[in-house]
Amino acid sequence: MTENEVTVAAVDWGAYEQQFEGALKEAKTLDDVEHLRVEYVGRKSPLAQALREVRDRETGMLLNSVRARIQGGIDATAGRLQAEELDRRLREEVVDVTLPGEELPVGHLHPITQVRRIVEDAFLGLGYEIRDDREVETVEYNFDKLAFPPTHPTRSPRDTFFFDGEHVLRTETSPSQIHILEEKEPPIYMVSIGRVYRRDAITATRYPIFHQFEGLAVDEGITLADLKGTLLHVMRALYGPDRNVRFRTHYFPFTEPSIEPDVSCGICGGEGCRTCKYTGWIEMGGAGVVDPQVFENVGVDPERWSGFAFGCGLERAAQLRHDIPDIRLLWEGDLRVLRQF
CB atoms < 10 A from the CB of 183, how many? Predict the structure, then answer.
């Protein structure tokens, strides 16, 4: 008899099975069953080691039958325990579908986007068209056709981002006025909303990149009174009836006469603070009656048609609407700030 045959024969496989069956009856959990599987048929079990040493057919058949019966007992017990666990969970882990579910955190629109939608709704209600034009403009559309004189400081690289001698990042959304005047015949009622770029110093009320809404109305018999009424309508939509609005005379190359709308500072109540530079008012933008030269530049008859134009910053509007002391807070992405709106 060889050494392998002595090793295999040295184990009483009947007693081995009986020992397993006794241990299996005591198994209460799936972990207990897994422990028995490793102990009795695992890679390091006596049965697995004996099977590696088998050299004759009869012994192999005997050991394989022992392994099959043990594995069968393991599978049956594991299945029974899994079914019992499922029954227990179905009895005990009852879900009351009438209870409210967990509230999931949901984001919301950025305050600038919220203000943009308020502006869009206000002008759509007046019958205006909403446009979104290109941000890279030519000098012709950004300055020349808007009647900026050659010596105007805005044409300087110190004030404007130039790509080359002919292309700039638009300094305002006013070029949309020229585009629509070239595309269609009056009457025209249009608002253009988008980003603009200027070489401005960053302050509590200014930022070099900001969003602007620019409006243009061209029709027969339009006057400065129509412009003031339109701006008052939008200001009331943005700030409610309690905020004061005033208009100051100003100068812009593409409007004459020109005005600037101011809104009373909500942070100090008009008494003066750092945000409003201690004046009690915050400038909203610029506006005025379209200069006849602009109409002539695009082939519109200034004797028949008149119009008004205006431009205001969305960040400034959001700052005024929510009494934010520093406009930079809208660009920093601090969730502690944004979650307040």
Answer: 10
Strands 188-197 and 129-131, sheet pairing:
parallel
Please name the residue that has the structure tokens 């102990």: 39
Q: What is the pLDDT of residue 5?
A: 44
126 within 8 A of 164, measured Cβ to Cβ: no
Are the C-beta atoms of residues 267 and 317 closer than 8 Å to each other? Answer: no
Average pLDDT over residues 108-112: 89
Q: What span, in angstroms and rounded, lies between the C-alpha atoms of 51 and 141? A: 89
**CB-based contacts of 292: which residues, under 8 Å, 6+ apart?**
302
CA distance 65 to 176: 87
Q: Counting beta carbons within 10 angstroms of the beta carbon of residue 161, is it exposed (0 to 12), middle (13 to 18) or buried (19 or more)?
A: middle
Query: Given this model, what pLDDT does residue 6 score?
Result: 40
Is the pTM of the predicted complex or chain greater than 0.70?
Answer: no
Share of the chain above pLDDT 90, in %: 49
Residues 6 or more apart in contact with residue 160 via CB below 8 angstroms: 142, 154, 168, 169, 171, 197, 198, 199
Helix (H) or strand (E) holding 249: strand 245-252
Task: With CA atoms as reference, report the closest residue to 262 among 237, 287, 226.
Answer: 287
The CA distance from 246 to 169, in Å, is 31
* Cα separation, 83 vs 271, whole angstroms: 76
pLDDT digits (tens, 9 = 90+) for 152-164: 999 999 999 999 9
Reduced to 3 states, what is the DSSP secondary structure of residue 143?
Answer: coil
